[in-house]
Amino acid sequence: MSWFKRPNPNLQPDDDGEPNGDGDVNSGQDFGAESTFAPVSDDGSPTRVRTEGLWVKCPGCRQILFKAELEANLHVCPKCGHHFKIGARQRIDLLLEPGYSLVDGNLRSTDPLNFTDIKTYKSRLAAAQKQTGLNDAIITALGQLGPHAVVLSAMEYTFIGGSMGAVVGETIARAIDRSLATRHPLVIVSASGGARMMEGVVSLMQLAKIATGLAQLDEARIPYICVLTDPTTGGITASFAMLGDLNIAEPGALIGFAGPRVIEQTIRQKLPEGFQRSEFLLEHGFLDAVVPRAELKSYLIRALDFMKN
Ligand SMILES: [Zn+2]
Questions:
Q1: 56: CA distance to ligand 1 center in Å?
Q2: Which among 84, 110, 134 is the end of a domain?
Q3: Digit-coded pLDDT (tens) for 14-55
Q4: Are 80 and 207 in the same domain?
Q5: Does residue 134 contact residue 91 with C-beta atoms inside 8 Å?
Q6: CATH code at 205?
Q7: What confidence tier does 132 reach under pLDDT thresholds 50, 70, 90?
Q8: Rounded to the nearest whole angstrom, what is the distance from the C-alpha of residue 240 to the centroid of ligand 1?
């Protein structure tokens, strides 16, 4: 295993910013990600070739996993059951039958505050759009969840932390309108760090807009199911992610409003083990169920069978 111990400057530590050292498929340490093979380009200068990594380290059990095996297992660690984050498009493919249609993907943020921190918000948006191929941090699809026609919105965490600005808010509001018009149940899969600070108060206005729409859905007696995935925090937890007729989560998902460090400093107490994870929230009555990814689709179908009868 000497190759494994050899210091390699190209191996970057997990830098997804989470204090628990958790990571996803893309930010996990990627052994063998860079080829040492150095061919020469047309003009004679050496070029570097990046080959796709075959292995990924599980943040749950620290085992090295074969990527293809992980993908075949729905991005759930076969050794310890750790649920890796997955993208919005993968989520839709996982839940809906083939032949669904994507809608409302053409909205783009106008940068209403002309916001700049260390980078301009416009450049952050452009980079995220290039990286994900999406216009913002959400996709809505119309399709069949087993026998049930549904409106499904899934959030994309890799797009500026899945944060909610005007576009995410408006996309969800339109998904609610589609549910109201067709009477098809609404399912929202959340994965978000909260409101998008670069849109300031505009992103907070979305909370009221969405909550009002969900109240209309409730009055019309149309089912609304929330699926909380890792992570669901901040203004998302404080609004639509907890307003479902049924609120379910994937195992081990971080779910909370403020982060644990902020809470510890405020209340000056040590927080209990597993605080803000799905299982803890289920035990304390904030969730209706914790459902493993492999069972999610059949669980949702059964829930809709029950709700629609
Ligand atoms: Zn594992």
A1: 10
A2: 84
A3: 444 444 334 344 444 444 333 334 445 555 555 555 556 899
A4: no
A5: no
A6: 3.90.226.10
A7: very high
A8: 31
CA of 83 to the centre of ligand 1 (A): 8
> Residue 128 sits in which domain range?
88-308
Residues 1 and 105 in one domain: no
Instruction: Encode pLDDT of 199-251 as tens digits.
Output: 999 999 999 999 999 999 999 999 999 999 999 999 999 999 999 999 999 99
* Same structural domain, 74 and 128: no
Residues 76 and 93 in one domain: no
pLDDT of 259 reads 83
Which domain-ending residue is among 63, 84, 105?
A: 84
Position 213 scores a pLDDT of 97
Tens of pLDDT, residue by residue over 100-126, are 999 999 999 999 999 999 999 999 999
Distance 28 CA to ligand 1 centre (A): 12
Q: What's the gap in Å between 59 CA and the centre of ligand 1?
A: 6
Residues 290 and 166 both lie in one domain:
yes
Q: How many whole angstroms from 66 Cα to the centroid of ligand 1? A: 11
The number of folded domains in the chain is 2
- Cα 237 to middle of ligand 1, angstroms: 27
309 CA distance to ligand 1 middle (Å): 39
Ligand 1 centroid to residue 74 C-alpha, Å = 13
76: CA distance to ligand 1 center in Å? 8
Are 139 and 208 part of one and the same domain? Answer: yes
Selected residue with higher pLDDT from 36 and 170: 170
